[in-house]
UniProtKB/TrEMBL annotation:
This is Uncharacterized protein. Keywords: Membrane, Transmembrane, Transmembrane helix. The chain crosses the membrane at residues 12-32, 38-59, 71-101, 121-148, 155-177, 205-226, 238-268, 280-298.
Amino acid sequence: MLSRFFSSSQPFHYLVGILLLGPTSILLLWLLNGDWQWSYAIIGLILPFALLLVQFIILKNELTGQNSYGLFAYTMLTLSVIVGIVEWKLAVCLLLFLLALRRLMSLKTGTSTIRKIFDGTFWISIATLLEPYMAIYFLAVFTAIFLFDRTKWRHWAIPIIAVVCVIVISFTLEIFLEQPILTRIFYRSEYGFNGLLKEWNPSDLLAWFLCATAVIGFVIYIIKLVDIQQRVRPRFSVLVIAGVCSLILALVGDAHFVLLLIPVISIFQVRALEHIYHRGFREFIFLLPALLIVLALLTQG
């Protein structure tokens, strides 16, 4: 069974994922769109780093067991989603989001708290300059502060300082480069409501499926909250809040934000796999992300 091959964490698994999200994704975008764009190369360079970050977050925070199921799920789901996404900015936002999530979840150690809060807020602030809707993830920052260390008032002030630093840096660059960097977040054109709820489109079938899967995962998380180890529970809470933010953006802001929902869905799938003992059903759930690539190709075609 293929799931047994990924039941441990081996360097070869990482190599397969990097090759699929790097060269393969570039080739896939090129073939499907018919012409070459440099944004394909940017996406192909960013996605492997995002994969490594996701796997690091999973293993470091003990969100799943010591296996590569999450690596496989994330790789397959990402390949299925990028079939319809050619926006390099969204890939950069995904990377920045994961960098922020890594720092926020590491607050569990209780060391370098101020630096971690600053870093997490800083990355989200940078992402907001690229996609103003990314500002919703500040909710994840304050959730992490509340869950991990809410007793010191200066921890609540650090995000504001980080945002001010980004504002000063971006405004300075805007003056010297004479390009809209900070001021573009005030453009009305940056806030179009093109989410899944706007209108039904057959090409959005995959995104709807992923959003529905996320909602089911959120409900199960709430029901099974007491079964999650107490020391891991706050990390899952931060993850779920970030997932809810991604879900809102996909439904209301832009359907392509479903890309930022994939890390959460991947972790939910692995948690499900670890509690399924029927071999046939377990194998089906494991292979489902790969089958979704076929669905993505059919709906885009």
